[in-house]
Specification:
By secondary structure, this protein is mainly alpha-helical. Helices cover 67% and strands 9% of the residues. Strands 1-2 form a two-stranded antiparallel ribbon. It is elongated, with a radius of gyration of 15 Å.
Length: 67
Amino acid sequence: MTSVNGVRRRPVPPAAIAAELAAWRNLRDTAEPHLTGIESLGFSHTLLRLEAELAWHEECLKTLPVT
């Protein structure tokens, strides 16, 4: 567990982040015809954050020794 601002949190596994990313992509694809410019930017921001989080986790896992 990690602590952020005194709040204990469990690490989020990469599979959960990948599933959340897929769900957001699906939601964006469904909503896309109805989005305004700023709403589209909001989706882009969320997707970029999740992609970066997933990439970071994958990089961390590559550096861990195989046991």
